[in-house]
Design goal:
Blueprint: H1 3-13, H2 33-42, E1 52-53, E2 56-57
Helix pairs in contact: 1-2
Length: about 60
């Protein structure tokens, strides 16, 4: 299971009032395009083309 899939599963299983604080290093799986898109979708953002990650930008 990749990190984005794991995070999607964790977010789907959380309660409505559950808050998570994630601390990650710069491992490449923590900076993937799929992860940025997942977080943007979870936050209700439709366009993440202006998001940047430490190794580049999406778009």
């Amino acid at each position: 299971m990749d990190f984005a899939t794991w995070l999607a599963t964790m977010l789907a299983e959380r309660g409505p009032h559950t808050a998570w604080h994630l601390i990650m290093d710069n491992l490449n799986i923590h900076c993937s395009e799929s992860l940025v898109r997942l977080v943007a979708e979870h936050c209700g953002l439709r366009d993440c083309s202006n998001f940047s990650i430490s190794r580049g930008s999406l778009g």
